[in-house]
Amino acid sequence: LVFDYQDVRYRNRAVEFEVTKEPEGTRVFFQAAKKHKSGTVVLKLPNGVPEPGKYLIHITLRGASEADNLDAHMGFVAGKGMATSSTSLFMYFLFALAGLYVLYLSHAGFKAKVDELLNKAKDA
Length: 124
Prior knowledge:
6 strands, about 120 residues, about 35% strand
């Protein structure tokens, strides 16, 4: 997970991160508050998330006092990517076949090799 806070005012504040599994609220990752001078934070969850589902990241910019803290929550879904359907695979095959046909029509050496292989197959 990558976070970038562009406002320079926040770069001198410590930032704390917590990722929880929803709706249970089970903590799966925690990074104690620390400063990130560049304003960009890359969170590397060592083992990823334990299972597919909904997650919530809680980000806290620490202030001088508890009242000065800024909180943000962002939900995300992990592990719910779509599998490649057979229709998509067929379309990839069709495009590959079309590409080979264009190559056959436009490249004399390739055309000669294909014609030679087809003649050998026909004679066999």
